[in-house]
Amino acid sequence: DRRGSATVRPGGRLVIRLSNSTLVSLPAGVEGPAYDRTRVTPGIAHLGVGQFHRAHQALYLDRCLALPGQERWGIVGIGVLDGARERHKADALHTQQGLYSLTEFPARGRPTVRVVGSLVGYLHAPEDPERVLELLAAPDLRLVTLTLTEGGYNLDEAGQFLLETPAVARDLDSQVPTTAFGLVTEALRRRRERGLGPFTVLSCDNLRQNGEVARDAFLSFARARVPSLANWMEEHVTFPSAMVDRITPGVTEHEAARLNEASGLDDALPVYSESFIQWVIEDRFCAGRPPLERVGVQFTDDVGPYEQVKLRLLNASHSLLAFPGLLMGYRFVAQAMEDPALVSLLQAFLREDAEPLLHPPRGFSVRDYGDTVLERFSNPAINDQLLRIASDSASKLPLFVQPTAREALRQGRDTRRIAFLLAAFCEYLRGVDERGHVFLPLEPHLTGAEVRRAHATDLKAPLGLELFQGWGLAEHPGFVKDCVHFRRELRFKGVSATLAELARS
Ligand code: CS2
To answer: Which of 273, 389, 428 to mutate to test the pocket of ligand 1 (most atoms within 8 A of CB)?
Structure first.
């Protein structure tokens, strides 16, 4: 029973497919774009159109496009990775003309659903790299934004760009780039050759000084490929840093069905998130920018203090919840937050360990921020997977936890909760919880042999992993001893008993 733009579900309910022509007949309660999409042209290209991008940046741009005279700031999404899932996404975005639904769940009260219209095109680079290059080299394209993930910048522990990574090494030689570095560099080369100006490269990844990180990565690639271009980029391209924040869980098939059931849409790519949203950006755009300050984005000269607060409080707490939570058999964040021992652990970590070492923005209450973080984690509508949080901890822990750990060790502070965190990480790598249930740690930046170190009889073996370089652990044998102690306790007494001990002493 299909009618092109709508399907009739058993029970007689009409479900709307997404396309420009169905925007006028959205189900009751679903808001659509407040502007004429057919007039929107691409000014932004975004690499890595994941759920986070669709719940965060694309929403801000959707608000921006609703302001008068801003139709030049549409986004064209670019998929860089290959694989069946990526192709499915590309197909779905084409069929739906870039439209998708976003459901926002406040901590309390009713969710809201909107159809976001700012994604006005989508190109899948592996299928047509040349079109991607010409889009990036188009005169009207002024901003390239990125979500490559924490580990996606191809840097080693010391921040050196890895020229020998296979895909990068290939891109350095070939005429047809496949990586974000290759695509952006080749597009800039064409722009320079054609006498066009540069574009801004804006990282939207959860990294400290993400603009500097992006700059290092792209300039290193360019230097190895076309040295004169690297000089031009250094002079003309800007790489502002930004802090991004919005909890956006992965959408399983089951979630997608639940979201569509509630919205009355037949959306192949629904996303959902909490209602909290934040974006703080350094105002250094070499080719202009949309008036994002009018839709809730904060601009600042120095994003450092905002990033510091976010990474060391929110993200570190997430990790601190995920490892013991998984070991206890929990699978979701809100579920783990119902465990009072875990909440007390997070509270103590925030108050005693992380907050005292911060240099927050002026007038900023870290105490309120920490409270809000715990409230956000407790949002029951957000089925955020602990495995998503724990995934790629090899890239995340050095960002989220290392600064606090190093500083606390240097100052001789109480580091037992941090030792517990590392112990729980090592145990998590073994992939089996206290009830004997198996789970799969996703560690794309660790080799199989490295993950297997977590199984060694020498309980401190994983602390020798490259990710712990720069933590200064070797100079602090007492700390390493605590880690080993907590691993043993976790293994033989369990998480609850270990937490009880930690709370007592
Ligand atoms: C999480 C983040 O992946 C993680 O470790 O802490 O994805 C978190 O949900 C976002 O940073 C929130 O903005």
So the answer is: 389
The answer to whether the beta carbons of residues 166 and 174 sit under 8 Å apart is no
Q: How far apart are CA 399 and CA 397, in angstroms?
A: 5
d(C-alpha 251, C-alpha 387), whole Å: 13
Residues 458 and 466: their CA atoms lie apart, in Å, by 17
Q: What are phi and psi of 104, to 5 degrees?
A: -110, 125
Q: What is the pTM of this model?
A: 0.94
d(CA 471, CA 404): 10
Q: Report the alpha-carbon distance of residue 157 to residue 394 in Å, rounded.
A: 10
Ligand 1 mutation pick, 315, 372, 443, max ligand atoms within 8 A of CB:
315
* The pair of three-digit structure tokens given for residue 404, joined into one six-digit string: 């606090």
Tell me the sheet residues that pair with 45.
76, 144
CA distance 146 to 215: 12
CA gap 360, 307 in Å, rounded: 9
- Ligand 1 pocket residues where CB is under 6 Å: 206, 245-247, 315, 318, 389, 396
**How far is residue 142 from each of residues 35, 43, 428, measured CA to CA in Å?**
21, 6, 43
Cβ–Cβ under 8 Å, residues 111 and 282 = no
DSSP 103: E
Q: Which residue type does 244 have?
A: V
Residue type at 89? K
Q: Over the stretch 242-268, which tens digit does the pLDDT of each residue have?
A: 999 999 999 999 999 999 999 999 999
For helices 416-429 and 393-400, angle between their N-to-C axes, nearest 10 degrees: 170
Rounded distance between C-alpha atoms, residue 414 and residue 349, angstroms: 10
pLDDT tens readout for residues 447-501:
999 999 999 999 999 999 999 999 999 999 999 999 999 999 999 999 999 999 9
Q: How far is the CA of 315 from the centre of ligand 1 (A)?
A: 6
Contact present, 101 and 30 (Cβ < 8 Å): yes
Q: In a 3-state reduction of DSSP, which class is residue 341?
A: helix
pLDDT of 1 reads 36
Count the alpha carbons within 13 Å of 245 in the hemisphere toward its beta carbon: 26
Those residues with Cβ within 8 angstroms of residue 389's Cβ, 6 or more apart along the chain or in another chain:
318, 319, 321, 322, 333
- Looking from the CA of 461 toward its CB, the CA atoms found within 13 Å total 14
119: Cα within 13 Å, side-chain hemisphere? 35
